[in-house]
Amino acid sequence: MARVLFISTGVFENLGIEYLSAHLKARGHAVGLVIDPLLFRDVFFQNKTLATLLDSRETVLAGVAAFAPDIICFSVVTDNYQCALALAGMIRSRTKAFVIFGGIHPTLSPAAVIENTCLDAVCVGEGETALTELADSFDAGAVRTNISNIWFKEPGGVIKNPLAPINSDLDDLPFPDKEIYYAQNPVYKKTYMAITSRGCHFDCSYCSNHSLRKLYGKSHVRKRTPDNVIRELGLAKEKYAPEYVWFVDDMFFWSEDWLKEFCESYRQKVNLPFFCYLHPTSVTESVIRLLKDSNCYEIGIGIQSIDPVSKSAVSRNESLGEIRAAMGVLKKYGILTVTENIVGLPRSSHENLLELAGFYAESKPDLIIANWLRLYPQTDLLEQEGQRFPDVPLERLVETGTDTGMGWKLNVKNPALTKKAAILLESAGYLPAAVISAILYLNLYRYIPLWFGSLNRLARIIKFSPLGGFFYRKATYDSGARVYLQSCFYFAYKKITGSLSGMKRAYKK
Asked: Cα–Cα distance between 459 and 443 in angstroms, integer?
């Protein structure tokens, strides 16, 4: 059997790695995992002093040496690409194992990724079959270089193997290997992360799903059957006793018939509170009634903006009336609402954020998240922004993962006022509507100190903690933030206690 080691970068568990691991184990290969949590080095929080203090790369290198892998696999997104490359370079200097990068970034930028000297190959597209064939070839004693979906680096150049037909039936896949992550961090057990589909029917120009459609066509959108999903969750409930289920599909359902079948079975056999994402136009009375009756506790919807000009620039065409109706239905049925919004959209301004804050003061969600625009490979938005800013090497910056945040930096004309407007926007989820309205009417947002954004983060932490019930109508679970924060504490504690133990051993010697 081949020994395959995955390197996971970031604090979240990676469902892609879990599916790959399950596939490899089914074929008898040995699979391991080491995690570099990127504490204070990720896109959420950055602090050089704390990042240096809590750097886990030597721990990762020790894990690589202990496992002695034949193949080392990185699952890479654009935002962690440079961190993954740096770590791969350190690993390459200490081992002769075969190093391969896969994931959405190498899939969309394979030519740029495979140029790196620390890599032997790149996986393009879905990797269950391709990676298993690669591991099988190690078992046979020689690396095959004619495996579909994998580009191999050879002395004479790069072998660019073709893309294999996509797996059309997701029910054929083994359930994700949760053990590989749960052994590393017990926090993950509390919130069971699941996905019921791959791909998305919507065509937002900033999203990687839009890019995958160029690669695979409409066939990239697939859905598991309700029975298959329920069997996974039933086994998970029995084995791990999670408190909550977090569905990470970009859009939880496409067919109301599918949803009816799922909800009825989920209520009878699982019945754990859960979170899912919906599109504003999918929020109807019948849909929300089904979800409410099946113990849906919280729903996330991507609003992004209510300005029609900036929305159309990213292929989001739902109307303000549709958004207002969706918010009203969610409020009527008592499901907590998390809205995601983008700061720095093309042709937007800080006034658009103020307008959105005023809207939320009237149609109040339970949590408002402001994300700064980031650009990703092979998206229409990257191409459009490249045409608008021809003097900026946007494609190179994005493909190298050097600066995916250039999107908002180019579009924001007044960074100080935009940051203050974004703080007010998120504050609309915590402060009374009258306060938000007064700030807007008197233009007081100009005097908001930038450190007030830290208070928003504190309010968010309180809202999804046990203290939330004392301050809010209903404590928000906020799956992503809860897992992120608790995992950061866990990995930091593990790093500090490990360092102290090492110092004690050194002192005794």
From this structure: 23
